[in-house]
Amino acid sequence: MEDILYQNPKILECAIIGKADSDRGEVPEAYVVLKTGEQMTEEELIGFCKQRMASYKVPRFVNFIDAIPKSATGKLLKRKLK
């Protein structure tokens, strides 16, 4: 799913994790780092995803952050986002 988010020219880095949901078990939650000088709303990003993803894959929550945690080798540490 991240590969679709990377198609947006405003996105520098992103990660999608599962967030606990009482109805569905888990729903997608996106963490996004925008490129310098870019702005985007949660609604804009969700709309972008709705055009390109199956509905169950579209993030239900979007968090704009300054940086995504990485290991010493540069691997994204999704567990630290939870």
Write a concise synopsis of the structure shown.
The chain has 82 residues and is of the alpha+beta class. The protein is built from two helices and three strands.
How would a textbook summarize the main sheet? Answer: 3 strands, mixed
CATH superfamily of the domain at 1-37 and 61-67: ANL, C-terminal domain
Mean pLDDT: 94
Radius of gyration: 13 Å
- Which oligomerization state do the chains in this entry correspond to? single chain
For the largest beta sheet, what order do the strands appear in spatially?
A: 1-2-3
Please identify the top-level CATH class of the domain at 1-37 and 61-67: Alpha Beta
Low-confidence runs (pLDDT<50, min 5 residues)? none
Distance between the termini: 18 Å
Q: Report the principal-axis shape.
A: globular
Count the beta strands: 3
Structural class, please?
alpha+beta
Number of helices: 2
Roughly what percent helix? 10-25%
CATH topology (fold) name of the domain at 1-37 and 61-67? GMP Synthetase, Chain A, domain 3
Note the beta-strand portion.
25-35%
Tell me the CATH architecture of the domain at 1-37 and 61-67: 2-Layer Sandwich
What is the H-and-E element order?
HEEHE
3D architecture notes:
The chain has helices at residues 2-5, 42-52; strands spanning 11-21, 25-34, 61-64. The chain is of the alpha+beta class and 82 residues long. It has a domain at 1-37 and 61-67: ANL, C-terminal domain (GMP Synthetase, Chain A, domain 3, 2-Layer Sandwich), CATH 3.30.300.30. It has a three-stranded mixed beta sheet with strand order 1-2-3, covered by helices on one side. Helix 2 links the parallel strand 2 (25-34) and strand 3 (61-64). The two termini are 18 Å apart. The model has no long low-confidence stretch (mean pLDDT 94).
